[in-house]
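Bumping with the actual sequence this time:
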Amino acid sequence: MRERTIASHFVRAALRGAERQGHDCVPLLRRAGIQPAVLEESRARVAPEQFARLIQLLWEFLDDEYLGFCHQRSKRGTFAMMCHAIIHCRTLEKALTRGTLFYGLFPEAPTIHLQREGDWARLTVGDTHLWDPDHFLVESLLVIWHRLGSWLIGQRIRLEEATFTYAEPAHAAEYDLLFPCRRRFDAGTTSLLFQARYLAMPLLQDERTLKHFLEYSPADLLARPDSGDSLTSQIRRLLGRDCIRWPDLESVAQQLHMSPQTLRRHLREEGSSFQELKDHLRRDLAIYHLGRDELSIQDIAEQLGFSEPSAFHRAFKKWTGLTPGAYRSQEG
C-alpha cells in the first residue's frame, strides 16, 4: 500500500548531512510538504511521496546523491549513469557486478561488494569513508540496491537476512518495511543475504523502461515500503481501506487458514496485535488523507470509522503527537 507512512526518525536522519554543512533545511521541508513540527515529535510520520520529494530536493540542493554523508560528493546523475552502464547486461549477477565496479571508480565512496556463499549471495556495503551517525546512507544504499535488483529481473528478491555492524536502534520496529527478513545487529558486516539463484536471472528491463524508472528513482525506491511476506502485511492487505467494514479477527484467521488462537500467537511473535495493526492502518490512512485537500477532517474521521471528530482528534494526537488540524495546516 502506498499509504504506508515513514517515521519522523528518517526525516531527521536524512537532513543531518545538510545540517552539518550549515544549511537551513526548513524551506526544503516546506517544499516537500512536511511540517517542521514533525522533527520535534518522535511519534510523527510522513507520507511516502513527501519523503521521496524531500530526498529529491536534498539531492538538487546539495548536488550530492550521498546527501552530505560522504567526504566526497556524488554528483546528481551518477546513479543514472550507473544504471545506463548495467542495463544491457545479460544477467543480474553481471549487472550488479558491473554496478559495484562503477562505484569502485570513485575514491572514498562507500564500497559495495557482491559475493557468493554457496547457495547464497551477499551484498555488502562498507561505511569506512562515511560520516553517517544514524546509518542513514548505508541503509539507504542497501534498500536501493535490493530494489534496483528486483526491478531489473521483474520480481521481488526475497531477503533471507540483513546484518548491521551497529547495535539495534530504538526505531528497530521500522525495519520491517525496509528489510522484511531476519535481522542481526552488532554483526561483522552491513549486508543483505539472498538466494544465489536470482543472480542467473535475465534482465527484463531495457533503455526504454529505464528512462521511466529514472524519473522517480532512486528516491522512490527509498520511500516505497517493502512489506514482504510478513503476517502483518498479509493482514493489512486483507483489511483494505474500508475501516467501517473491516473483517474481525476470526474471519481474517479463516482467510489465512489458521485458528484465531494461532493468529494471535503469530502476531505476538511479530511484536504486534490485531488491534495495533488496525490502529496503524487507520493512522497511515489518516496521514494519507490529511496530505490531500479532498476530504474535510470530519469526513476523514467518518471514513476511518470514528463516531465523532473528537475521538479522531484524540486518537491521531496519541498516534503522532500532533492534532489532525495542526498536521494539515502546516502541510505544504
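The C-alpha cells above came from a reply further down the thread. Residues 136-153 form the longest helix (18 residues).
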